[in-house]
Design a protein that fits this description.
The chain has 463 residues and is of the alpha/beta class. The chain folds into 3 domains: 1-38, no CATH class; 55-395, Alpha-Beta Complex (Spore Coat Polysaccharide Biosynthesis Protein SpsA, Chain A); 398-463, no CATH class.
């Protein structure tokens, strides 16, 4: 077996992966052999060789224009919000919607050594992100009298714990057949200077998740795409686990997507600060393109129109609607999504078998990004959402300015207070309130549930 593996590794100069072969037991050797056989070494070589090939953003921006958009100010929109709402409701009631939740990340930055979806974010209830999202899906399914399946993507780091968490909590009420959990793939990590694949242990290759763009291959390999076709799901609502304000299966977004004949639509917020850390959506050469915030030159980011608005205004919040037929078409092409390189601190064993924990970026990880599908989609559009009603990502540890647990909870409370006030209720100053989606999915349902003039003087969880 060793000689066979050495022959495979020699072509790419990766023989060092067997440096500790003789120290491994039979199970360790078998495991390492399986890891090696699963690697596409030619692909790794190609990606590493072209790691410095990047898009000339300045040249791209010379051809760029604001994206085709449906704005909060509807005066210039092709369709009204009411028209979009009706069309989205029709699709929901016809059972055409499914949900993809990307949940491969750990809560490490939050000091939480579990999948981020397990983080207790409810300001009054302490419900987890997972529970909040599932309750929104159940509430939407009840509203439209249909089944809405949840396709939940994990990573190797979060898969087992996530599966156990849903099992132990009876899927928070989601029917068993409507939860499909699948795991994204991985890619080997390589040394930043040499391109040699790193070992995390003497018998284990250092790997990392292949990015949220790995969803495309994972949907295909797990046969989730087949499941969607069986259920006659035509459109997927996609979002990431860290945003408890997301309006899951929001019918206005879905309706704009359908009325515009789009294959891939993305929800955006109007950037308040030119240097906001969000992807920037522009149109170039007739296609939508996302420019990462760290690639956007400051002078271009700060450029404003005559009315004072930012020229590059559309900030992506990782909420999308995608046609299943489009994803099926893209999945047939293995190279539909390019790999990006990210320089990371990668713990590894050196050639002497010593464990190394680097204090600077020593390795390269490869990942795919889901928004790289957008340029291939016909009729792609962006739809603006008020961040107060749709975007409060949990990303930073306490002590940062925004995106912390405290900040996210405050946004959730503010939304609940706003909905209650619109219904004619009065919430005392400084009182935390939280609305469960199973009690009311939106402001209109709150108005149906609460008596005008109701005064709320203590922290309350409406459920």
């Amino acid at each position: 077996m060793k000689n066979e593996l050495l022959k495979q590794l020699a072509a790419g100069g990766q023989e060092h992966l067997l440096a500790f072969w003789d120290e491994l037991d039979d199970a360790g050797r078998q495991s390492l052999a399986e890891q090696i056989r699963a690697i596409d070494f030619d692909l790794i070589d190609r990606i590493f060789a072209h790691r410095h090939d990047v898009t000339d953003v300045r040249q791209l921006l010379q051809r760029a224009a604001p994206p085709p958009a449906f704005r909060l100010d509807e005066s210039k929109n092709r369709f009204t919000g009411e028209e979009a709402q009706r069309r989205g409701e029709e699709a929901a009631a016809a059972g055409q919607l499914g949900v993809v939740l990307v949940a491969g990340g750990q809560g490490t930055r939050l000091g939480f050594e579990h999948p981020k979806g397990m983080f207790p974010i409810g300001p009054v209830s302490r419900r987890t992100l997972f529970q909040i999202h599932v309750e929104k899906i159940i509430a939407a399914a009840r509203r439209y009298g249909v089944s809405i399946p949840l396709y939940l993507m994990t990573s190797p780091a979060t898969h087992d714990e996530t599966v156990a968490f849903f099992r132990d909590n009876d899927r928070f009420g989601l029917p068993e057949d409507d939860l499909i959990v699948f795991c994204q793939g991985t890619m080997p990590a390589v040394d930043a200077g040499t391109g040699k694949i790193l070992l995390s242990e003497r018998g284990r290759i250092a790997t990392g998740p292949d990015g949220h763009g790995g969803m495309l291959a994972a949907l295909k390999n797990s046969r989730a795409l087949d499941d969607m076709r069986r259920r006659r799901i035509e459109h997927l609502f996609y979002f990431q686990v860290d945003n408890p304000l997301v309006d899951i299966c929001g019918t206005r977004l879905v309706g704009y997507h359908l009325l515009a004949g789009s294959e891939f639509s993305t929800q955006v917020v109007a950037k308040q600060d030119p240097m906001d850390k969000v992807g920037n959506v522009v149109e170039a050469d007739g296609r939508l393109v996302v420019i990462e915030y760290f690639d956007l030159p400051p002078d271009k980011a700060k450029h404003r129109e005559l009315d004072g608005s930012l020229s590059i205004w559309a900030g992506s919040i990782a909420v999308h609607v995608m046609d299943v037929a489009f994803l099926e078409r893209m999945a047939r092409h293995g190279d539909a999504l390019p790999f990006h390189t990210a320089y990371k601190k990668v713990a590894h064993v050196d050639r002497n078998g010593r464990r190394v924990k680097p204090d600077r970026e020593n390795g390269v990880k490869f990942e795919r990004l889901i928004f790289d599908l957008i340029p291939s989609a016909a009729g792609a559009i962006v739809v603006e959402v008020d961040p107060a009603e749709g975007f409060a990502p949990l990303k930073n540890a306490p002590g940062e300015e925004i995106d912390t647990p405290e900040w996210v909870k405050a946004q959730m409370v503010a939304q609940s207070r706003r909905w209650l006030a619109e219904a004619g209720a009065e919430v005392a100053e400084g009182i935390d309130v939280e609305i469960c989606p199973l009690w009311a999915l939106d402001a209109a349902e709150v108005a149906d549930k609460i008596q005008p003039g109701t005064r709320i003087t203590e922290s309350t969880y409406f459920c």
